[in-house]
């Protein structure tokens, strides 16, 4: 019997892309019906918001609105104060958002009535081990990073052999997502503070991406193998939903027209290196996780068991030259080059309505097949696919 995993990357408001995929795969299904298709659901950061929406029994369209509607985003991304926010924004370095306010915002979103005028649905305050109306077999895992012990931690719905005889405390759903989504240095101003033991003590956390789990699919594979020693690895199938990523060939562009498509070299220095460190958690570790999970689960016929779906903001090989994918011609009101460069340079914490609207268009063009899909492994020199699917439809059909 196949063991099915749903894996949800981090990525702030870019996690709206995951809701768009779920709407395409499971149109208008309530969240718990979607989760009933899986044996394990694992998420990090923005993907944790997507997962919380599923656990709340929201449809994918309603989960998309958690990111798309400005009033919802403002509950999660609360400015520290105007002056600090503007200084950090202009310098490009420093935390802009209030961590404590984020927890209250998440509680408000997750405890809201399912329908306007309905009764409150306080699932945000329910601990993970007490989540209602889920299949008994379903494991739910949310990744975070323990700030004081300097190591990864996984909040689980059900016990695991990987947590030992004394499992860590089980936070509320809102608390787990708060810890998991608390990206440091360039984003939130303090570690996420969660009470334990009835509020007598507290623990502090950073985003799970700090431990290399922005794409948690590999950990999901390890969890199911550790807890079922009879399971054949090739019987594991994972739907790994990303939040968009950049890819550009390195080196010198062969023509002036192709210059904007190549990754420009940058001069090392304290500011540049700090920015690289602050954002590296959403780059290479997610790519490595997909490859490693593929190697572990590879079937005898070499067919991928890890289905990776995530749009790629990057050029395509067009004969002997590089060019923009066709989808960038469909962004309303801007040229293809502007759409490409804007998305390429857009931060993880894209909160302006114009930015979020661009992400929604990116998702639509990718699902329509006019923007490439992220494969499991590509040749970094010429962009060719080694493992995985180069188009959304191919990955969808494989799933």
Mind explaining what this structure looks like?
- This protein is an alpha/beta fold and 399 residues long.
- Helix content is 34%, strand content 16%.
- The chain has helices spanning 16-25, 31-35, 46-55, 60-68, 70-76, 82-91, 99-110, 173-180, 217-227, 270-279, 284-297, 336-344, 353-367, 392-398; strands at residues 3-8, 40-44, 139-146, 151-156, 192-196, 201-207, 236-241, 245-246, 306-309, 312-313, 316-318, 321-323, 377-378, 385-387.
- Strands 1, 2, 3, 4, 5, 6, 7 and 9 form an 8-stranded mixed beta sheet that branches. Strands 8-10 form a two-stranded parallel sheet. The chain has a two-stranded antiparallel ribbon with strand order 11-12.
- A hairpin with a 4-residue loop joins strand 3 (139-146) and strand 4 (151-156).
- Helix 1 (16-25) packs parallel to helix 13.
- The two termini are 16 Å apart.
């Amino acid at each position: 019997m196949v063991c099915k995993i749903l894996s949800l990357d981090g990525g702030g408001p870019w996690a709206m892309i995951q809701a768009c995929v779920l709407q395409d795969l499971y149109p208008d299904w309530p969240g718990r019906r979607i989760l009933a298709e899986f044996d394990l659901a694992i998420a990090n950061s923005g993907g944790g918001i997507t997962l919380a929406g599923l656990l709340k029994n929201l449809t994918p369209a309603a989960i998309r609105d958690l990111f798309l509607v400005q009033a919802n985003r403002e509950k999660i991304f609360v400015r520290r104060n105007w002056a600090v926010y503007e200084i950090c924004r202009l310098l490009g370095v420093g935390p802009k958002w209030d961590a404590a306010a984020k927890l209250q915002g998440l509680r408000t979103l997750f405890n809201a009535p399912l329908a306007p005028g309905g009764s409150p649905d306080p699932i945000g305050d329910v601990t993970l081990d007490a989540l209602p109306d889920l299949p008994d077999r379903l494991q739910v895992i949310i990744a975070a990073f323990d700030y004081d012990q300097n190591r990864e931690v996984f909040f689980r719905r059900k016990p695991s052999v990987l947590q030992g005889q004394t499992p860590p405390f089980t936070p509320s759903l809102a608390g787990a997502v708060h810890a998991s989504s608390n990206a440091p240095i360039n984003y939130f101003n303090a570690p996420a503070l969660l009470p334990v033991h009835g509020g007598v003590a507290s623990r502090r956390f950073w985003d799970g991406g700090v431990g290399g789990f922005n794409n948690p699919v590999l950990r999901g594979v390890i969890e199911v193998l550790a807890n079922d020693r009879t399971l054949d690895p090739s019987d594991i199938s994972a739907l790994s939903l990303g939040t968009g990523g950049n890819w550009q060939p390195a080196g010198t562009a062969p023509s002036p027209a192709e210059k904007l498509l190549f990754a420009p070299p940058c001069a090392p220095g304290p500011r540049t290196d700090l920015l690289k460190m602050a954002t590296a958690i959403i780059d290479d570790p997610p790519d490595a996780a997909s490859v490693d999970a593929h190697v572990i689960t590879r079937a005898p016929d070499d067919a991928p068991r890890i289905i990776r779906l995530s749009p790629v903001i990057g050029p395509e090989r067009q004969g002997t030259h590089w060019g923009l994918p066709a989808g960038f011609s469909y962004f309303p009101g801007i040229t293809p080059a502007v759409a490409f460069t804007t998305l390429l340079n857009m931060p993880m914490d894209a909160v302006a309505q114009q930015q979020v609207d661009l992400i929604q268009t990116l998702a639509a063009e990718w699902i329509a097949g006019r923007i490439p899909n992220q494969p499991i492994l590509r040749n970094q020199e010429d962009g060719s696919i080694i493992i995985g699917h180069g188009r959304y439809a191919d990955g969808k059909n494989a799933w």
